[in-house]
Amino acid sequence: xxxxxxxxxxxxxxxxxxxxxxxxxxxxxxxxxxxxxxxxxxxxxxxxxxxxxxxxxxxxxxxxxxxxxxxxxxxxxxxxxxxxxxxxxxxxxxxxxxxxxxxxxxxxxxxxxxxxxxxxxxxxxxxxxxxxxxxxxxxxxxxxxxxxxxxxxxxxxxxxxxxxxxxxxxxxxxxxxxxxxxxxxxxxxxxxxxxxxxxxxxxxxxxxxxxxxxxxxxxxxxxxxxxxxxxx
Length: 232
Ligand SMILES: Nc1nc2c(ncn2[C@@H]2O[C@H](COP(=O)(O)OP(=O)(O)OP(=O)(O)O)[C@@H](O)[C@H]2O)c(=O)[nH]1
Ligand SMILES: [Mg+2]
Description:
By secondary structure, the protein is α/β, with parallel strands linked by helices.
């Protein structure tokens, strides 16, 4: 009799743990219903945000807080779009606060000034792609190469291959740091397969590139909208 009672109690306990885990996982998944716009200051995040959310072009100033708006997708689902400040001193605190909501990330690059900014862009993107939350949840990333209306803008294709080259250099530096006594091995993350040249396609997260433009006359956000619809 006592044996039966014991088995019954254990079964109930297991059932409770199982149901709680399912509820926890379901809530966690459902809490990630946002798209985050991130990137360096002046890259074009707020301009892209107002176009995606309100279909309008506005003159912007450096953001000091987030912008938030719902966007409705083709399947009538709604996601929340967040535009986070790119300003150096604010960037990481907003990232840490909002990253847990990310269903997807749009990393915005100023394609016009890309060549003069390539190291900073690559360093920042590398950091985000190493983020344990991004990696463990395999958050899809769109790299939006904006300002394509400018004739001197670099295309997404060129930007992608230049970033792969930069990532090789960043990786070599990091691997070098592993060999020194000053390198804290646990904090040094190496993206991709260090035995071969870096390719975005080697990452477990899906990484896409899109050319886009937000100015009225030559607005082109088709690739961005398609990507958002594809991950929803
Ligand atoms: N030509 C062109 N200019 C753009 C485009 N998108 C943004 N800009 C300009 O780029 C500048 C910076 O744009 P913002 O949207 O404010 O940049 P941001 O990334 O939000 O910057 P922070 O708020 O500082 O992080 C502004 O002068 C915009 O008008 C574009 O598609 N084409
Ligand atoms: Mg802004």
